[in-house]
Structure formats: structure tokens, C-alpha cells
Amino acid sequence: MTASRKKTSKAQQTPAGTIVSAVAAAESPLPDSTQTIVAAITAAIIEHRLAPGAKLTEQKIAAIYGVSRTIVRQALFQLARDHLVTLEPARGAFVSQPSVEEAQQVFAVRRMLEQHLVEEFCEKAVASDFRALRAHLKQEQAVVNRVDVTGRTRLLGDFHVLMAERIGNHVLAQILSELISRCALITLMYQSSRAAQHSSDEHVDILKALEARDVAKAKALMEAHLLATENSLLYHPRTSSADLAQALGSYAA
Predict the structure, then answer these.
(1) Which residue of 50, 61, 146, 188 has the lowest C-beta tally within 10 Å?
(2) What Cα–Cα distance (Å) separates residue 163 from each residue in 1, 23, 158, 246?
């Protein structure tokens, strides 16, 4: 049925892989000090030590880490690409404020798109595509088990993008990647470890239905999965530190 399908190029077969860092993946590595600041601010956001809307002052961050403002600016640009920080002209950088309404709209659109994705995957997928998904799920489970919040958010979303890329629908893969990135922050901040584990288990069930070419079951599982993922998000911010030095202090050199 699809065995004669033309092989995509190696570049095409590479999964999006970085839901919140697609642009950065193609660029040269950032300096260690920049990566340290990126990791520290990311962790402070995830752990609710920095509240949505908190101002990230370049001068203060530079003083905390003993680096130049140029290094801090590089880190903030990276965080902006990752949708974790918003850069406002003449005002500076702020922790992005996840919109509940936007997240709900994203999931509604994803439910429509991914019904088609399931149908197309069942029609076009070959053995190598199923192997790629199984390999991805092994990585996903490992990250979920070690409670790597950033890693699990990326890989849980990548499962859906990878499905589209494996069957050569790169337009859909790009659309899904962008949709997922738009609510990445709210997922990072408010998805519990238990919910993440449940989401990964649902991916396993979806893959089994896909391997059986059971379109109806796979579509029903995908619909239930996306609804469960949305409902698992805790849309209520927790108490955060208002002091930048205190929020980042334990991560400073």
C-alpha cells in the first residue's frame, strides 16, 4: 500500500524535536554563561519562583551572575524564542503571561487537525514510521520518569509533530509545532508530573491503535487524549517571589 512511498531526505525525517527551541536548534551553541541564565530563569518560572508578568531587568541579572548585559540579552532573546519571555520595546523583558483562553483555543484547533492526522498516518505509515514512534516513546517515558519538566513538555508535544513529519506532511508538522509552542509556558507551569505520566501512557495506547490500523479507535483515543491534557492543566498561578535576586539566587554562580 505504502511500501513504495518515496523516502524523504534525512533532513525531512528529522522530527521537530524542539517545540520551544526550533529556531535555536539550527544556530551555534550559546556560551555557557548564557545557557546558565536561560536554565535558571526557565527553572524559576517552572517552579513558580517567578510570576507571569515579572520584569526581568538586564542590569540586575547581570549583577547576580557577574556577567555583561550582552550575555544577559542573549539569554533573554533565547527565552523569547522559547515563548517563556516577552520582549517589549522601550520596556524590557517580562515573564510571558499564559492566556487560558488562548490555550483553550489551541486545543480546540488541535483536536480538529489531529483527527485528520490520525487518518493520514494510518493510511500512509510504514514499518519504519512505527519504529520511530516507539523509539520516541522510550525517550519520552525516561524523561517523564526522571521528572525533567522542560524535557517532558518538549517530548510530549513532539510525539504529535513526529507523526506528521514521518508521513511527509511537513506543513501540518509546522502548524502543530507552532500551536503547541503557543501554550508551552502554560503546560510547563501547570501540568503535574502525574498528568504528564498519564499523557505519555495515552501516547502508548494511541500508537497501538495506529499499528492496528484501527482508525476509529485511534481517532477516539486522540480526541480523549487532547481533552484530558487540556483538563489536566492547572490554570491558577501559585505564589511567586517578587524579588529577582531571591528567585534566581540559588542558581547564581
Answers:
(1) 146
(2) 18, 20, 8, 42
Q: What angle do CA 68, 72, 74 make, to 5 degrees?
A: 115
Give the ranges where 100-183 is alpha helix by DSSP (H). 100-124, 127-145, 149-166, 170-182
Write the CB contacts of 131 (distance below 8 Å, at least 6 apart in sequence): none
DSSP letter string, 58-89: HHHHHHHHT--HHHHHHHHHHHHHTTSEEEET
Residue 85 backbone dihedrals phi, psi, to 5 degrees = -130, 145
- Please say whether the beta carbons of 78 and 30 come within 8 A: yes
Quote the longest CA-to-CA distance of the chain.
Answer: 62
The side-by-side arrangement of strands in the sheet containing 92-95 is 55-56, 92-95, 85-88
Contact in structure between 69 and 60 (CB atoms under 8 Å): no
- Of 14, 21, 2, 25, the closest CA to residue 173 belongs to 14
What pTM was estimated for this model as a whole? 0.70
Residue 183 near residue 102, CB atoms below 8 Å? yes
3-state secondary structure of 207: helix
For 190-202, the pLDDT digits (tens) are 788 899 999 999 9
- Which whole-number Å values give the CA distances from 208 to 53, 115, 124, in the listed order? 42, 16, 16
Q: Which domains are present in the chain?
A: 22-97 (1.10.10.10), 99-232 (1.20.120.530)
- Which residues, 6 or more positions from 107, have their beta carbon under 8 angstroms from its beta carbon? 183, 226, 227, 229, 230
